[in-house]
Amino acid sequence: MKRASDHFHDAHSVLLHIPHASTVIPDRFADLFALDPGEVGEELLVMTDHHTDTLFEFDDADRLVFPVSRLLVDPERFRDDAQEPMSSRGMGVVYTKTHHGRDLKSDRTREILVEEYYDPHHAAMDAWVSDRLRRHGRCLIIDCHSFPRTPLPCDLDQTASRPDICIGTSALHTTDTVAGVSCSVFEARGYTVEVNRPYQGTIVPLRYLGKDPSVQSIMIEVGRWLYMDEATGERLSAFETCQESLQAAMEEIVEAWRGNAALQEEKEQIDDRP
Predict the structure, then answer these.
(1) CATH of domain 4-272
(2) Cα–Cα distance measured from residue 51 to residue 156, given in angstroms and rounded to the nearest whole number
């Protein structure tokens, strides 16, 4: 298997993290599922962030794309179910329930799945962040997702009205400047935007979570109805427009992050003067 780090570019200090785009379930794990193949297909249609691996394009960034479906392993969950709120709904790191609460699959190979897919993915992200801090002193993760128009039964937020774009932030790992630009750039293009609703937070490697503000992160969740037919998973003609909007937004977000970091460095230099 080709390592994700084979695609990393030393000069890049921005990482696109794309965790839920894959529909791949290797044949050797098919017998774990309690659903028939048609039902698995229906669950994949609902739960996959379809096309996000092509929707989010930014030349001046590395990409880390999870290689298998979240129905097998979800890299955005905490490894320890005791730390993961969604584990109470059977949707921790290894799902045992569907989005509407039916039995999905056995967790008898939990550790095998976690060790084969989850651990290497997080090790790659951790190594990328450590290397970027060493090379550049800072880095930015853009956590790339999409979401359905109607709340799923498993969603914590059941509010019927949903924005076009959801921006997820972290108190330590997302500056107010970056969060503000993230909202304003989409709003300027006519999209409705909310922060941390209907989904909240953004991914940060555990080693740095809550500890190092040099590791910045922001989540962008795009309403699926803006670029795809939710009934079929097929792209709409508006796909390219949405893709271009995302690219323009990420350019401004990265520019704001770099400017914010430069100001912080200048302040630190001033503070260090005798």
Answers:
(1) 3.40.630.40
(2) 24
